[in-house]
Amino acid sequence: MKLILPIEVAAEIEPHLPSDTKIVLVDSDGNLDNDAHDAEVYLSWFFLKLTSLHQVLAAAPTLRWHHAPNAGVNHFLTPAYLERDLILTNGAGVHGIPIAEFVIAYILSHAKHLPQLHALQAERHWKRHFPIQELTDATLLIIGAGGIGQEIAARAKAFNMRIFGSRCHPQELPNFDKIVGADEWRSLLPEVDYVVIATPLTRETKGLIDETVLRSLPPHAYLINIARGAVVDEPALIKALTEGWIAGAALDTVIGEPLSSDSPLWSVPNLFITPHCSGHSPRVKQRSIELFLDNFQRYQAGQPLRNVVDKQAGY
Question: In this protein, which residues make up the domain named D-isomer specific 2-hydroxyacid dehydrogenase NAD-binding (predicted)?
Answer without folding.
Answer: 104-278
